Amino acid sequence: MNPILRVEGLSKRYGDFQALKDVTFDVAPGQTFAIIGPNGAGKSTLFKLMTGEVPQDAGRVWLRGRDISRASADERVPLGLGRTFQIVRVFKEFTLMENLILAIEARNCQRGIKRGLRLKPDPAVVDEAYQRLHHLGIARHCSAEAHHLSLGDRKRLELAMTLAMEPMVLMLDEPTAGMSPSERVAIIELIQRTKEELGLTILLTEHDMDFVFRLSQAVMVMNHGQKILDGSPEAVAASPVVREIYLGKEVAHA
Length: 254
Known about the structure:
Layout: E1 5-14, E2 17-27, E3 32-36, H1 43-51, E4 58-63, E5 66-67, H2 73-76, E6 81-84, H3 96-110, H4 123-135, H5 151-164, E7 169-173, H6 181-198, E8 201-205, H7 209-215, E9 218-223, E10 226-231, H8 233-238, H9 240-247
Parallel strand pairs: 3-8, 3-9, 6-7, 7-8
Antiparallel strand pairs: 1-2, 1-4, 4-5, 9-10
Helix pairs in contact: 3-4, 3-5
């Protein structure tokens, strides 16, 4: 089966610092692929290069067989690449409905359905916004401004906005960062359910190893901007290098 996402030899240098060096991997359709490693391993830089947030010095990114290496971040979204962030990015002074309506209108503009955002959205857009909030369990807050939400609900809102762009590959940067144990359990279950219902491919970075080993079919380990190894969660957990240096002793009992 051809990969839905392929990364070939991605490298990035900031002055004298080699942030990323010759990283290559494939992600299969429908797979949950986790990228792990200590702070400073290069995970965030890799995400930025893949989404077009910053340009690579070398290497290519392929999405569904198409080379998107020179496409801007905005151009990659309608091609099927969506991303959430470790620090949640929503419009805090807008209500949840307003946030979702903006995302849906932006998607329609990108597809040429509309030429610009409207002050009064179509009823169909409003209905879709409500349904998406309902699906992620936050419709009860639809009239509240986003800054009033808990961190967990803000992450749900960001996820709803990303899903409104209808990505094929969903990139999640530390989706459980800063959450309480109960919030982590809820967001893990939500991501798994959403993936199954929408048939998504998921690429994620995450420090919560319970999350990684519960949901992932493949894991890649990074350190100092390089790929150390990749494979099944079981193979990665069994690696002495990974257990001792990157994951800690607890994974030996996972």
